[in-house]
Amino acid sequence: MWIDDRHAIVRRGMAACLQQSGFVVRGESGGLAPEPNLTGLDVLVFEAEGAALRRAVRLITGSPTKLVATVREPTEQQVREIVDAGVGAVLPHDGLTPEKLVASVRAVVAGAVALPGDLLTRLLAHVVKASNLGPGGLNDRERSVLRLLADGHDTRGIAEDLRFSERTVKNVVHDVLTKLNARTRAQAVALATREGAI
């Protein structure tokens, strides 16, 4: 885990919360300087202000590192851009608690999406609805899995809810990512929502 925020006290506070919950924080930076060492790094928590989103996405390209974005005053457009970029969680500073931080990071590590309810509602309210996804359209099973992903369920939760094996859920998620040309589950949810598939 690596923590990036321009304010040292915020970085250290997040690091302390995560360390108390058993996460290993390997480093910290402000404005992605110094540049995080991604070797063996599971999660990069970064402040998505200015050009930081593009830099963070470019930095992790080709690595298994997952992204968690913190935002000071999120707008609908900013949240759409963050989710479209494949970021697994969006955490507004306002109202962020140690419990929310830890739960969101755990969800992202488990492969789930972590969007606060109010942000998800605002995001969904502003996406353009479409009747289908064209030739690569999703079937009912894929839509069901995507809806549960959007609600924050992990692989086990989806399997229990739909009475599938976890392996089946993983296969369906893989198919969805391929059809939507999405890098992460969060990005797949955003794309499917925008296209009116879920």
Descriptive notes:
This protein has 198 residues and is α/β, with parallel strands linked by helices. It contains nine helices and five strands, in the order E-H-E-E-H-E-H-E-H-H-H-H-H-H. It has a five-stranded parallel sheet, with helices on both faces.
Entry keywords:
198 residues; globular; 5 strands; alpha/beta; 5-stranded parallel sheet
- Cα distance spanning the termini: 32 Å
Indicate the structural class.
alpha/beta
| SSE topology string | EHEEHEHEHHHHHH
Strand content: 5-15%
Helix content: 40-55%
Q: What is the total tally of β strands?
A: 5
Query: In DSSP terms, counting alpha (H) and pi (I) runs of 4 or more, how many helices?
Result: 9
Radius of gyration: 17 Å
Oligomer: single chain
Low-confidence segments, ≥5 residues, pLDDT <50?
Answer: 126-136
Strand order of the largest sheet: 2-1-3-4-5
Whole-number mean pLDDT: 87
Major β-sheet, in short?
5 strands, parallel
How would you briefly describe this protein structure?
By secondary structure, the protein is of the alpha/beta class. It is built from 9 helices and 5 strands; from the N terminus they run E-H-E-E-H-E-H-E-H-H-H-H-H-H.
